[in-house]
C-alpha cells in the first residue's frame, strides 16, 4: 500500500476548513483565498495519482469510491432535513445547485436539502474521466489540453449549468493534470525565490480576478486568470503544508484532511443548527445580519466549529462500522 503523504492531507484539511468557511457567516475572512480553496482538491488528486490498471479500471474504481458516498450522504441529508420530493430526487440526479447561472432570474434551484456542496463529488467523477484521457494518451496531451481549453470556453456560453458539472470538468481535469506534473517534476523542492515570485503572482491576479464560484461556473474576469489562481494557489498551499508536518496544527489539519469527504458532504447539517443556535444565544446576531459585523463573525466561527467537529465525528463513526466503511470504501 502506498504511503500517505501527510502534507497532502494537511493541504486538504486546510482546504476543507476554507470550504466550510465559505458556507458560513465568516465568508469575508477568506477573501484572499477564494481562487484556490476548491481547486486544491483537484490539484491534490492529481498530485497523488498513480497509474494502476487500464483507463476503464481506474475510472470505475474512482466512480465507486465517489458515487456510493454521494448517494449515501444524500439519503442521510434527506432524513436530517425532512425533505422528500420529486424535485429533491431530480436535484440529486442533476447534481447542480441551480439550472441556470446565478445572475439569471427566475432560476430553478436544486440540492436544497443541505446537500448543495455535494456537486463536488459528481464533478470529481467526470473530472477523473477526463483526467485519465490525458494520462493514458499523454503523447497526444497538447491536442487534448487544447481541446479541453476550447470546450471550457465554449461551455461558458451555454445557457444552463450542465449536470454533473460537465461544463467545468474540462478545466478541473487540467487542475488534476497540473498537480500530477508538480509531483512528477518535484516542484516541492523549488528554490524559495520561485515561491516568492508565485506568491506575488497569485496576489496580483487575485486583485483583478473578480467574483469566482466554480460550482456555478463563475470564473471571474477570465477563465485563464482563474486557472492560474487555482493552480498557483494550490501549489503554494501544498508547499506551505510541508512545514506544518510534525506540529500540533499539522496533526489537526491531517485529521480533517483524511475525513474531508464526509465533512464536505454533511457540513450543512451542522451549519444550519449552529446558525439557529447563534440566533438564539447571540443578542446581536440575526440570520439576515449584514456581512462583516462582529456578531456575524462570531456566528461564523461557531458554525465552522460545529461543521468540522460534527463531520469529523460522523466520519469516525462510519469508519468504525465495518459494514459502512466497506460500503463507502473508506
What do you see in this structure?
The structure is a single chain. With 330 residues, this protein is mostly helical. It has one domain (7-328). The protein contains 13 helices and two strands; from the N terminus they run ααααααααββααααα. The chain has helices at residues 6-22, 39-47, 55-81, 86-94, 119-136, 141-155, 166-184, 192-209, 223-241, 248-258, 260-281, 294-320, 322-328; strands at 212-213, 218-219. A two-stranded antiparallel ribbon has the order 1-2. A hairpin with a 4-residue loop joins β1 and β2 (218-219). α1 (6-22) crosses α9, α1 runs parallel beside α11 (260-281) and α7 crosses α9. The two termini are 14 Å apart. The model has no long low-confidence stretch (mean pLDDT 91).
List keywords for this structure.
mainly alpha, 330 residues, globular
Q: How confident overall, as mean pLDDT? A: 91
Structural domain tally: 1
- Derived from helix and strand composition plus strand pairing, the structural class reads mainly alpha
Q: Measure the end-to-end span.
A: 14 Å
Helix content: 55-70%
The total count of helices amounts to 13
Write down the overall geometry: globular
Across the major sheet, the strand order is 1-2
What's the β-strand tally?
Answer: 2
Radius of gyration (CA) equals 19 Å
The H/E string reads HHHHHHHHEEHHHHH
Beta fraction: under 5%
Contiguous runs where pLDDT drops below 50 for at least 5 residues: none
Major sheet characteristics? 2 strands, antiparallel
